[in-house]
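Input sequence (381 aa), recorded before submission:
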Amino acid sequence: MVTARLIQVSPEISRTCAAAMRSCYSSWPAHALFTDRSAFPDSEVHRMLRKAVELGHMDVLEHGFATWIVEASPEEVLEALLEHRFLNLTRLGANSWLITTTLRSLVDTRGSRSAVLSELGRFLPKLAPWLSEQAPQSQVKQPPREGYPEGAQVWMLSYTDFAGLRAAAGPLAIGDLLWHGGFTFSISGVSRSFTHQLVRHRLAAFSQQSQRHVAVARGGAWYGSPPGLPAGLTEEYARFMDGVASFYGRLLSGGARKEDARFVLPNATLTHITMSATAWEFRRMLSQRLDTAAQWEIRDVSWAILSLIYLVLPEIAGLEDPAGSSAWVRASLDRLLPELEAARGEFQRLPPGSWMEVRLPKGLLEHPVRAYAVRHAPAQI
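Predicted structure, token format:
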């Protein structure tokens, strides 16, 4: 008989998914929505997620993880994998397994004939009570926001309680542990050049601001400027961007749809994006993007991501190649890790619901990036 014991759920999993979804249709990034409960109340969270399921926009339900210890035979586990490939699993014993899924997997496999998937689906009412909620829900609209005057920001919204996971599952090799825990980041004030690179990391979920539904090029902070532009061309670059913004506005005022007017917008256009992935995928990404061969914008954001993940998972600093063998990366880590260790202690002492900025050392980045983490209480299942 198949049995499952839920041992870990990403904190505020519904709110995280809904903030990611809402940010796609808003000038506000996910972290601004996530942290403002008055402007983004639970009723709006529930309305957004029910709408996502009704429309089949299931990708937003990938921003969070749930992990079980499952007692099942190898044949029963194989049957589940053949029906639904998106399960991360580690064998703990002859008939004992550690299985991690996203919320989407539970919704996608409702009514499954697999004994394992049916047992996991039994937890859906607990993890997604909004799915069967009958209470009336009204839409809450945020006022438009003008550009990204604060610059690039990286917020760690949600993360796995790795200490709790280890306590419940027993000793795990680091290679297995990283598959059963993950993080959700809200990243804003970054260019479309950056996001085109970011989404190449395939084992992840992304929710990005839509240029089809949200008008951009408003205000003075709508585009980014590379720090390496030739000095004699910076003014011409700014004039070109002013011309793009003017023509984009003329297209909209002349009756063009936003989905058509966006054709004139350059890669420099600033945007926001929400990313969720396992710790394994983030370590793989950082091992590539911290290398000196990486483009400056994604390298800077990657330093912020590493610094935030370190607060709850110091093993993230064990990078693989090419960054792992880079003398510059190793020297940078030697300078950075003592500061992150102090920040980690401070973060663990914060009351749940508060947030902290992790300041990155001068000289590490080529452009300003600010890094923040929301503190969550240890998981209680």
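Checked by second reader. The radius of gyration is 22 Å.
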